[in-house]
Amino acid sequence: MICVISAISLTALLRVTSNILILNGSNYPNWHEQVLISLGCLDLELCLRIDEPAQSTLESSQAEKALYESWECSNRLSLMIIKSKIAKHIRKSIPKST
Questions:
Q1: pLDDT score, position 7
Q2: SS3 state of residue 86
Q3: How far apart are CA 1 and CA 22, in angstroms?
Q4: Is this prediction's pTM over 0.85?
């Protein structure tokens, strides 16, 4: 599956994410706030607002398929951004996820 976010330019992505602090263990409240604001500005917070929808099947409607694809894309990109803003010594203890 290819994740296409037409509204996000590489420049905007770098500008918004460059302002997120690196989580170092003592700055969680500020880091958390910056992550939520940044994901919201990038329109990637769908995975934070709703639970994972049922995976698409052959019987799924177009709307259900679109919702799942949007959620999955939001989740994958959000995880990549979040993990990139966590100090390596902390990131090592985070289990691999999809």
A1: 55
A2: strand
A3: 30
A4: no
Q: Look at residue 22 and tell me whether its pLDDT is greater than 80.
A: yes
Distance of CA 68 to the CA centre of its chain: 14
- Residue for token pair 């296409």: 4
Q: In this structure, what token pair is assigned to residue 50?
A: 């709703």
Nearest to 84 by CA among 32, 29, 28, 21: 21
- To the nearest 10 degrees (0 to 180), the angle between helices 28-41 and 62-84 is 140
Alpha carbons 35 and 84: distance in angstroms, whole number: 11
Contact by Cβ (8 Å): 79, 46? no
Cα 18 from Cα 2, distance rounded (Å): 25
The pair phi, psi for residue 23, each rounded to 5°, is -65, 120
Which backbone phi and psi does 48 adopt, to 5 degrees? -90, -20
The structure tokens 């052959």 sit at 58
